[in-house]
Amino acid sequence: MRLPPHSLVVLIGPSGAGKSTWATAQFRPDQVVSSDALRALVGAGEHDQRAGTDAFELLGTVLERRLRRGLLTVVDTLGLDAERRQGYVALARRNGFEAHAVVFGTPADVCRARNRGRPEPVPAKVLTNQLAATERAVHEVRREGFDGVHAPEDVEVVASTMRGGAAAGTALRFGLHLSSLRGEGPFADRLAEVARTAEAVGFSSLWVMDHVVQIPQVGREWEDIPESWTTVGWLAARTQRARVGVLVTAVTLRNLAHLAKIVATADVLSGGRVVCGLGAGWWEHEHRLYGWRFPPAAERLDLLEDALQLLPLMWGPGAPAFDGKTVKVPEAVCYPRPVQERVPLVVGGGGERRTLRLAARYADACNLFGEPDAVRHKVDVLHGHCADVGRDPTEVTVSHLSTAVVRPTRRELGAAVDALRGRAPSEAVVDRLGAGTVEEQVGRYRRLAQAGVQTAMVAMPDVATPGALEAFSEVIAAFPAPPRPW
To answer: With helix as H, strand as E and coil as C, how does the chain read?
Structure first.
């Protein structure tokens, strides 16, 4: 049996069975979590039984944190408590891991001989009880929900950082979201280098925001932020294969018929590589700065629904009239037509009552935010709306936008975070930036893929830093691409 890299491995056997020796030979030291080592950490030594409760409490915390980061983990304890074993299986399930048990059927006389040779042997009566408990565990463990129960000699370990194999069974594309481009030198030169490198390392799409001043979640108002659809055309001219788009276009900032013309032109000039994201708009401040009206939320959603209907009409045959909730167009005229038969439409936002319903009815994709559990819930809501409107949910791609900083090693990652954090505490910045090693990021994105995400939109605060995109290429290489084109 080849253990998949996204596994929680639970060792089961009495003292002297050879569990720790086997784990040391098969796994890296950082992948093995030993109850004895934790007992020494919180008590007077590995054999301090008074520290057992604290050690197992700490063990639970360590396992939760490791699995949350997508790290292969081996539980080196006796493994003889059925309730604890079932807790390990539940923990694996919550984090999208497989749970595998490795049972050591070492003969009793061998265990006793090894135990006698230890500096601090387990009392003979205790070992006898462990041997009896192991016999019971052999029969119980197969009914406890493990994905596999194995003898140690039957297990082959696959390295958790193996290229192309770390996310077996999940498919994911990656898009680069260019929300910020801090760095040295002319802005256009930085953008050109980022676009070229991103396409070369495997990003399937490039995206910009639709804001006229920088948003507070990303930076300061006076930082450079280019006009979105102008930039899409510029990016298309400097790339060969990557899709290009706006995530997402605020329907409050432009006349909708004119927007259809802008998108169609960009699609023609890109050779059919445009994806059009649409959203209701949210930042009242920039509307006030530029003199745009900022309607109430219900009206903005009406405008979004009109856009989702009008744009395909503008790009289609003939010149029909459109009479929407907020917009009237006497003739939907747009020449040249887009190269694509249908320019994909992405709805941004996770509003369950209306936004996701609009995505289910009209869009080719929806873009979500949040942790895997929240995403899984939103996907369920989306699919419910698809059922209500009689649409196949597989027709609606799910994308997800988040921030990421990645480096191959913990030391390099720490240096990258320090360069970005300013005066903020390091731990808070790590969470806010989604910082992690390659191995941790593979686990993170695998959980998102298992929650229903098909395209991960990645905003990298240090995207213009040499080596940052190349580091992320290791994450991209761990996932096969799904069949949808972007």
So the answer is: CEECCCEEEEEECCCCCCHHHHHHHHCCHHHEEEHHHHHHHHCCCCCCHHHHHHHHHHHHHHHHHHHHCCCCEEEECCCCCHHHHHHHHHHHHHCCCEEEEEECCCCHHHHHHHHHCCCCCCCHHHHHHHHHHHHHHHHHHHHCCCCEEECHHHCEECCCCCCCCCCCCCCCEEEEEECCCCCCCCHHHHHHHHHHHHHHHCCCEEEECCCCCCCCCCCCCCCCCCCHHHHHHHHHHCCCCCEEEEEEEECCCCCHHHHHHHHHHHHHHHCCCEEEEEECCCCHHHHHHHCCCCCCHHHHHHHHHHHHHHHHHHHCCCCCCEECCCCEECCCCCCCCCCCCCCCEEEECCCCCCHHHHHHHHCCEEEECCCHHHHHHHHHHHHHHHHHHCCCHHHCEEEEEEECEEECCHHHHHHHHHHHHCCCCHHHHHHHHCEEEHHHHHHHHHHHHHCCCCEEEEECCCCCCCCHHHHHHHHHCCCCCCCCCC
Taking only the tens place, the pLDDT of each residue in 396-446 is 999 999 999 999 888 999 899 888 877 666 677 778 889 999 988 998 999
- Entry pTM: 0.70
Q: Which of 28, 41, 42 is nearest to 74 (CA)?
A: 28
* 401 part of a folded domain: yes
Q: Name residues whose C-beta falls within 8 Å of residue 314's C-beta, 6 or more positions apart in sequence.
A: 257, 260, 261, 264, 329, 332, 333, 334
If asked whether residues 378 and 318 sit together in one domain, one would say yes
Instruction: Please check whether residues 253 and 386 belong to one and the same domain.
Output: yes
Kindly report the backbone phi and psi dihedral angles of residue 353, in degrees, each rounded to the nearest multiple of 5, phi listed first. -80, -40
CA–CA separation, 396 and 430 (whole Å): 32
pLDDT tens track for 52-66: 889 899 999 999 888
How many domains are there within the chain? 2
What CATH code is carried by the domain that includes residue 131? 3.40.50.300
Q: Is the same domain home to 202 and 140?
A: no
Predicted confidence (pLDDT) per residue in 12-56, tens digit: 999 999 999 999 988 888 899 999 899 889 888 877 778 788 989
Mark which of 157, 183, 211 sits at the end of a domain: 157
In a domain, 212, yes or no: yes
What is the rounded distance in angstroms from the CA atom of residue 397 to the CA atom of residue 453?
A: 8
Domain of residue 413: give its range.
173-476
